[in-house]
Each structure stands twice: as C-alpha cells, then as structure tokens.
UniProtKB/TrEMBL annotation:
HEAT repeat ranges, renumbered to this chain: 115-154
Any one Pfam family match given in the protein's UniProt record, by short name: HEAT
Keywords assigned by UniProt, alphabetized: Repeat
Location of the region described as Disordered in the Swiss-Prot/TrEMBL record: 247-270
InterPro entries referenced in this protein's UniProt entry, alphabetically: ARM-like, ARM-type_fold, HEAT, HEAT_type_2, PP2A_Regulatory_Subunit_A
Entry GO MF terms: protein phosphatase regulator activity
Name of the gene this protein is made from: Ppp4r1_0
Higher taxonomy: Eukaryota, Metazoa, Chordata, Craniata, Vertebrata
Protein name: PP4R1 phosphatase
Domain of life: Eukaryota
SUPFAM superfamilies, per database record: ARM repeat (SSF48371)
Gene3D superfamilies linked: Leucine-rich Repeat Variant
Entry keyword annotation includes Repeat: yes
Cell membrane listed as a keyword: no
Gene Ontology CC annotation, any one: cytoplasm
C-alpha cells in the first residue's frame, strides 16, 4: 500500500539519526538496509511515496548522514536518469527540483562534475517550461554551489538564454535571482555582461518582469560595492544584508534598518 511506504519514508530520518548515534553497535546498518530503500523509492510509481522519499533524502543530506560514495554512486545516477531528455515529464520535474535543492548540500566537485552538465541541459529544455522555470528560480543557488569559474564558463550563457525566454515567468525568475548570480561573478563580467542583461530585464515588455527587476536593482548595484566599505554581505542563506556598525551593536536600541534582508536569491516565482 502506498500509504505504508509513505509512512516508512517519514520514519527513515529519525531511524538513521539513531543508527548514527549508535554506530559502534550498528556500523553498517544504514548503508546496507536504509539507503537502498530511499534510493528505490525515488522512482516509486506513487507520487506521494516519491515525494516522501525526496524529503527524506534532503533531511539525510542536511544531517550529513549520507556517505559521499553513496551520493555519487547511488543517488546522482538515479537523478540523472530521471532527468534525462526521454524521461517521463512528471519524473523529470521532480528530479530537477531535487537536484537544485541538493546542490547546496554537496561538495563543489560533486556538483560540478556530476550535476552541473545536466542542469545546463535542463536550462534549455524546450519541452517543459516547468523544468526551465525551476532552473531559473534556483540559478543563484547553483552558481553559489559551483563557484566563479564554472559560473562564468558554463552558467552565464545559460542565464542569458533564460533571461530572454519566451515565457515571462522565466524572465521574472531570473530578475529575482539576479543579485545572487552577480555576486558569484567577477567585477568585469558584472560590468560587461550582466549590466546590459539587467537593463534588458528592467526594460522588458512584461510589467511583472520589470517590477521584479526594479526590486532587484538595489541588491544588484550593491554587488559592485566593496563589502568592507559598504557594510554589505551575503549571508549563508543567500540573502543580502547590512552589517551593523560597532556603534549600533553597542547601542541598547534596536534599529531594524541596521540588519535588514534586502533580497532573497531563491525568491518564489509567480
């Protein structure tokens, strides 16, 4: 019964944590018994079971309970197979979503060598706009996961494609994550490539795209500033914040403007 398999998936993370804490007594139980179940349920025929399996996998990754070898040899091959061009549409959408969420939890090498090539392919998926939209909405997170060199060499050309996509929701998603993409690039790329691209978004024919671009204008401009003099920094969750001054920290008064989030790199798209 699907409900039984779904319930089982929900119990996997706490069991895995228990086994990790009791590892001297159960040194291989998780890798031999539980991990194969999680991997198998990523391709379950039932949607709810697959969703529960994906959520369980993300929790296991967040808790650092999955070995690097299992990620590379068991999890990534399944996701690459599900996101292949000839894969079922529903499976492909789910796979690209989980790939994007996983990127920030994996090593840069794993993301760049195993997942980045497929992500670039999915950015150009002409069959499903849902796939391209997920890629656009998470573009900043992928850039942050792979670093400047891979971003400029492989991702910026794809970002240009998405910024000129015929679906306005794609362009809006790009405008919303523009600051996160810019922050990952060099000042020269920022000036010569991203600035003209941003102007095209702020002049877009769709008012929703223009509105999103104007909301991102300040955060995008801030990426040109020297963080040490401007007092701006990127937090671990990908948001741009203002660092409080020493005077503000020592003050007893609470000024909300001293530490305010200006924009999130993974803002939801309409």
């Amino acid at each position: 019964e699907p409900t039984v398999r779904t319930e089982l998936m929900e119990q996997i993370p706490p069991i895995a944590i228990f086994l990790q804490e009791s590892r001297p007594k159960f040194p291989t139980a998780f890798f031999e018994y539980l991990m194969p179940i999680v991997v198998r349920y990523l391709t379950d025929v039932n949607n709810q079971v697959r969703k529960a399996g994906q959520e369980a996998l993300l929790i296991l990754l967040e808790q650092d309970l999955v070995a690097q070898s299992d990620i590379e040899n068991k999890v990534c091959p399944i996701l690459l197979d599900l996101s292949a061009p000839d894969s079922d549409d529903e499976y492909k959408v789910e796979a690209v979503n989980i790939i994007c969420k996983m990127a920030s939890m994996l090593s840069r090498t794993t993301v760049e060598h195993l997942l980045l090539p497929r992500f670039c392919e999915l950015c150009s998926d002409g069959k499903l706009f849902q796939v391209r939209k997920i890629c656009a909405a998470n573009f900043g997170d992928i850039c942050n996961a792979v670093g400047q060199e891979a971003t400029e060499r492989l991702l910026i050309p794809k970002f240009f494609e998405l910024c000129s996509d015929s679906v306005w929701g794609m362009r809006k998603a790009c405008a919303e994550c523009f600051m996160a993409v810019s922050y990952t690039t060099s000042p020269e790329v920022r000036r010569s490539k991203l600035s003209p691209l941003f102007i095209s978004l702020i002049s877009d024919t769709c008012r929703w795209v223009r509105q999103a671009a104007f909301q991102s204008l300040g955060p995008f401009i801030s990426t040109f500033a020297n963080p040490s003099s401007a007092g701006l920094y990127i937090r671990e969750d990908g948001t741009l914040s203002i660092r409080p001054s020493a005077q503000d920290v020592n003050s007893n008064s609470c000024q909300p403007s001293n530490n305010i989030t200006l924009m999130s790199s993974n803002a939801n798209t309409a």
